[in-house]
Design a protein that fits this description.
This protein has about 150 residues and is an all-alpha fold. It has one domain (about 1-145). It is built from five helices and no strands. The chain has helices at about 1-15, 20-40, 45-80, 85-115, 120-145. Helix 1 (about 1-15) crosses helix 3 (about 45-80). The relative contact order is 0.13.
């Protein structure tokens, strides 16, 4: 199981790090599909849609660095899964919480930016959509990552 998780994570990390034309096309395709779903669900029109699309792209780019950081935490976990002593566990907890806090700061910053171009109800709607997509991704990852072994 450890090897499976590690292989999956290394592949995912490579997906974000390697300059590969085919890989770039896959990532761009997934990002375009997500954006199409978001735009269709938001039901925006005209200038508001254009402004939202531009800010959406900016947010997704900033969000990508957080996703890479999350993958680094998961990779560290996979590499240390058989050696989850207090030192390794505390380092992982610190990295995880630091990334969670940074993600929340980013979300707060962009909520303020989105509120400048959208009514608050539409901002809520957008972040509900974003959160649902993120939950789906987290559930897929959670299914692949084994729980830590209890301390003895």
């Amino acid at each position: 199981m450890k090897k499976t998780v590690l292989a999956l994570l290394v592949t995912a990390m490579a997906a974000y790090a390697l300059p590969n034309n085919e890989l770039s096309l896959v990532l761009l395709s997934k990002a375009a599909q997500k954006k199409a779903v978001v735009l269709a669900t938001m039901q925006l029109e005209g200038d508001t849609k254009a402004k939202f699309g531009k800010l959406y792209d900016e947010y997704q780019e900033a969000l990508m660095s957080h996703r890479v950081n999350e993958l680094e935490v998961i990779t560290d976990y996979a590499q240390n899964i058989d050696n989850m002593n207090d030192e390794n566990s505390n380092k992982l907890i610190t990295k995880w919480i630091t990334e969670e806090e940074a993600s929340m700061v980013l979300k707060k910053d962009y909520i303020a930016k989105f509120k400048k171009i959208l009514p608050s109800a539409d901002v809520i709607r957008y972040f509900q959509i974003e959160n649902r997509i993120q939950l789906i991704n987290e559930l897929e990852r959670a299914d692949l990552i084994p729980l830590a072994v209890p301390a003895k």
